[in-house]
Amino acid sequence: MRMDKEERELTHFDSRGNARMVDVSGKSPTERSAVAEGTIRVSREVFDAIEGKKLKKGDVLTVSQVAGIMGCKRCSELIPMCHLLNLTEAKLCFQLKPESCSILALCTVRCEGKTGVEMEALSGVSIALLTIYDMCKALDKRMVIENIHLLEKRGGKSGSFFFSEDSPHSDGE
Predict the structure, then answer these.
(1) Taking the model in full, what pTM does it have?
(2) Domain containing 61 — which CATH number?
């Protein structure tokens, strides 16, 4: 769904350029969801330690999963203009990719609200990947967090969005 120019205006500024939180009081609550993903590339040593649950700090993926969910829930405290949302679901899962020594984090967030949950999903992925880094940095600090982006968004006035590799802003160009 394409937005016209008026809908694409930046809404976190008033007519005088002052920062503001968008007023959503006149909007009706609707079902909203978002899915975001990101990747961390690690050394073979780090990958094997995570997969084998051999780190002294504990099970890296379980701790990172909880941290990511907490990141979703605390998004409004981290991103200045985000609204506090009553999330109905926050789910984080990982896909281990041994061939590339990487871990893909995937975060799904849902709510019934007046504004979207894209930032919550992106925050969840970011915090989960940062937690992996934190728990593994004693083994190797050369980990690379990359390609954090919104995969899909549903609900609200602007409708649905689905990430496409053909997008002019994706790595596919």
Answers:
(1) 0.87
(2) 3.30.70.640
